[in-house]
Amino acid sequence: MTTDFKKQVQEKLANYIAQKGSQNKAAHSLTGVSSALLSQMTNDNWDQISETMWRNVASQIGHSSKEWVCVETTDFKMINYFLDDAKQNANVFAMTGDAGSGKSKTFELYIQDSKNSYLLSCAEYWNRKEFLVQLLTAMGVDYSGFTVAEMMNEIVKKLKSQQTPLIILDEADKLPDTVLYFFITLYNRLEDHCGIILCATDHLSKRISKGIKLNRKGYKEINSRIGRKFIELKGVNFTDVTQICIANGVENSKDIKEIFNDSEGDLRRVKRKIHAVKNRV
User: Which first-to-last residue range defines the signal peptide (predicted)?
Assistant: First the structure.
């Protein structure tokens, strides 16, 4: 492992600590990492730090040694507009976009430079406790020994004490109903204090519509709190793909057209195809 890599991680870590507010909060938000270790990394005391730990920290704070230039696509700009609005004005929005539209990467980049902003990548297996654990971890709060009620109270207390906090629930359609209801609780207790963004594929909007028709518990309340509207992302267009290709070393117009036609609007496919074109024999 090179010194340049460690320096890059060190620089990224300094920004991460600043975003979290303190070294202790940063350590609490990372798995298997202590405040003492972060102190060693930031102060050039590297002799006792294994390569495995460097990679562990690097992956958790979003650093990659592979060069890839991100471009401000149409959806990137749109998402950032609503993130800023939600954060500055404690607004609540729900947005939908196709898989591979760049939603998650946009969120990751946003929170890196936005203090008191917390991103949760939701999962199907989360129960109510796990959801709160994930949110407290993102906030850098030690939740040891807390009950579910105590965890929720701690979250509300911390967020109300912060300036312009923001919660982003990515892939929110994966949450079971019992956890999705926590969105109502968070809204009710943090209204006018904290911005909230729900984001998913259009499965979420269809799920909410179906739940309302079937008069399922909580669905009308959720729909009301997002303003009875889902913001639909535009998707990846030819201009977006062209800019991504040029930024990442593919400038031939024929290659760009080929990449766009092969992408099916999925930025993951764009990235793979750019790699294939650049390594074409």
Answer: none
pLDDT at 32: 86
Residues 103 and 214 in one domain: yes
Looking at the fold, whether 91 and 225 belong to one and the same domain comes out as yes
Point out which residues pair with 167 in neighbouring strands: 118, 196
How far is Cα 155 from Cα 176, in angstroms, rounded to an integer?
Answer: 20
Query: Are residues 220 and 81 both part of a single domain?
Result: yes
Asked, for residue 112, whether it belongs to a domain, the answer is yes
Q: Is residue 194 part of a domain?
A: yes
Q: Which whole-number Å values give the CA distances from 139 to 5, 21, 31, 98, 257, in the listed order?
A: 27, 9, 13, 28, 43
DSSP 173: G
Question: pTM here?
Answer: 0.81
Q: What is the mean pLDDT of the chain?
A: 91
d(CA 264, CA 268): 10
Q: How far is CA 132 from CA 16, 73, 129, 181, in A?
A: 21, 32, 5, 12
Structural domain harbouring 216: 74-232
Q: Of 129, 101, 102, 105, which is closest to residue 119 (Cα–Cα)?
A: 105
pLDDT band at 281 (very low <50, low <70, confident <90, very high): very low
